[in-house]
Amino acid sequence: MTDSPHVSAADGVLTIAISSPANGTSLNGDAVDEAIVALTELHSGARDERVILLVGAGKNFCAGGNVAAFAAAADRPAYLGGLAERLHRLITLIDTAGRPVVIAAKGWAAGAGMSLTLIGDVVVGGPSTKMRPAYSGIGLSPDGGMTWSLPRVVGPARARAIILTNRILSAQNALELGLVSELVDDEQVDARAREIAAELAAGPSGALQATAALLRAAPTASLADQLAAEAASIARLSGQPEGIEGVDAFVQKRAPNWR
């Protein structure tokens, strides 16, 4: 288990720099591949980070795919299909990792960048944050799960309007629609997201991972299934060291020691 140019780990946080300053802060294919390796290790137990943090390496979180590379591809359908498969592999690994996901959504989150923000549990933005589906602007349909995720966040009618009209969402729009969790000064977006990720990593990791898993399962679960899953989860956690410590610390009127 080693860090790579676009993936690093510290204090229980796995950080993925999903875009690069080059090519208009577009989605970085190398970062996607490196993240897939790291997340596969996380799933297998070879890594033990407790929180996933997605950031942009340039002025934007991610301004979408590298359209110039699309145009230069000898076989565009094969090229775009391969990119979508890798992006979807990344998103699936994040979604099934059972870890809280924090996103530093500074500047533009467009196209695939907007799709990636939709998998965040906590999304930090700034006044200059803007989101846009972008796909129809280049004659394409969405990928990255946007047509699945956005309706579940903002509702089907709003999602249809946003995607079909290629609407630009300001930071305030994104906050009001629930696409962004909080807004801070632009220069503080990365720092605030890292602060939140570190706080989560220092907390009761078992409880937070179980909660993240429940939240991700909820959209496609029936109420009865979700109630059963919640009952099983809280019962299991009550017999784990963190659950025992948390309850005992509360009764004893002291701060819990999660480590």
From TrEMBL:
Gene3D superfamilies: 2-enoyl-CoA Hydratase, Chain A, domain 1
Transmembrane segments: none
Origin: domain of life: Bacteria
InterPro entries given in the database record: ClpP/crotonase-like_dom_sf, Enoyl-CoA_hydra/iso
Descriptive protein name: Enoyl-CoA hydratase-related protein
Organism of this sequence: Gordonia defluvii
